[in-house]
Amino acid sequence: MPKLLTAEAAAPQPSGGPAPSGSIDRFFRITERGSTIGREVRGGFATFFAMAYIIVLNPIILSSAHDMNGHHLNYGQLVTATSLTAAFTTLLMGVIGNVPIALAAGLGLNSVVALQLAPRMTWPDAMGMVVLAGLVVMLLVATGLRERVMNAVPLGLRKGIAIGIGLFILLIGLVDSGFITRIPDAAHSTVPVQLGVNGHLHGWPVLIFILGVLLTMGLLVRKIPGAILISIVAMTVLAMIINAVTKVPNWGLTVPKWPGNPVASPDFGLVGQVSLFGGFDKVGMVTGVLFVFTVLLSSFFDAMGMIMGITDEAGLTDRTGNLPGVNRVLFIDGIAVASGGISSSSAATCFAESTAGVGEGARTGFANMVTGGLFVLALFLTPLATMVPSQAATPALVVVGFLIFSGSIREIDWSDLTISIPAFLTMLLMPFTFSITNGIGVGFITFVVLRMVAGRGRTVPVPIYVVAAVFAFYYLMPALGLT
């Protein structure tokens, strides 16, 4: 049988310990990985609440853009498409990949579709480009190329990627909560961000975030099971009380109040609205290929970084830092990209917010059954699913960001500058450029250059040379007039 269907999806098993009991336990290898069904359930809930904002945010980004004919996608249909894709791909990753990594429409990828592809063609054409990118990802997995690239990454650079993702999701938490905000261009300041608004923290929502961070950290210090989930639920209830009393106007995308009608019928009108090759007729073959390449590059390395960082934090990698059976996980990621195009919700990818579930103790795909099941419910209970304000969920990202950082920083060989400098640039550029792909790209290029300068070019695996060259070409595309 092909390797894709037979490889194990977890690290080597620990010896001793309790024997698995029950078919669910055996299938997901819950006891084997040192977890319990209770932890997996808590982890599934924590991941869902940490990423439920995508149900609202993705439709906002896509519906605000228009295609070459001025057409906009329907917001209600986008809510359904986003929830449907997240449910399908997350459940698939749980059953086949057996890792606690949830998937949904990727932020950044949806902006590429909305701002680069759609204005040059129709929406079905743009989604066709996304489907093609997903098919190419699956082809790369089937040939083993994607796994070879992942396994060729040195351990020190892997840890740099993991730390970068930790810092990246910490920054996401700070920004989404309003604790840090962007300074408007009109201010003519060279400083890009600031504390709160105008350099000050004020308002009930930010207080909810601060209390949530302190509560989560306090529960972790006390080693209370379910710390992250307890904090999310407690802060949501407190936010609902404060909102009912004060009528706070600036919660953001989600307002913490009980919806008048928590049930909403899903509208599947956008599913299947795809023109696979229509975009090439609009922009030409060369530009069309570059568009597919842009989507491919972003999804390929964003997901690679997420998978490496999350599974390392969950303790699922082996002694060399590799994830046994990674091909199955990578292939599902390719399916997710294509699925997002088929549903018109943009390319789906692995979510950093999965670390919230890992922080709760999730170690298997059973956590995905919970997260995916909640996305299924969200198809019918969208008003209820979007009741949790970001200020109640984002403390989980801050705390988990710290846990990832503290768990990986010691494992980098800082005395070897050919690995420590690329790792350093990788971990910093991910949050500073708000892009996992940029962090990986600069890290790979720097690693190759420094190894060659040091006379150690032969120690660089061939796949890393190839990837560094691809990234270099990608960064030079604007100068070459290819964008």
Strand content: under 5%
- Structure classification: mainly alpha
Q: Cα-atom Rg, whole angstroms?
A: 22 Å
Distance between the termini: 42 Å
What's the helix-strand series? Answer: HHHHHEHHHHEEHHHHHEHHHHHHHH
The spatial strand order of the largest sheet comes to: 1-4
Regions with little confidence, pLDDT below 50 for 5+ residues: 1-16
Residues in helix, %: 55-70%
Main features:
single chain, two-stranded antiparallel ribbon, disordered N terminus, 62% helix, 2% strand, two-stranded antiparallel sheet, 483 residues, mainly alpha
What does this structure look like?
The chain is mainly α and 483 residues long. It has one domain. Helix content is 62%, strand content 2%. The protein contains 22 helices and 4 strands. It has helices spanning 3-6, 23-28, 37-51, 54-63, 75-97, 109-117, 123-142, 145-152, 155-177, 204-221, 227-246, 278-283, 285-313, 326-343, 354-359, 366-378, 382-385, 390-393, 395-408, 417-433, 436-453, 462-476; strands spanning 103-105, 180-182, 193-195, 348-350. The strands form 2 sheets. Strands 1-4 form a two-stranded antiparallel ribbon. A two-stranded antiparallel sheet has the order 2-3. α8 (145-152) packs across α22 and α9 (155-177) runs antiparallel to α19. The relative contact order is 0.21.
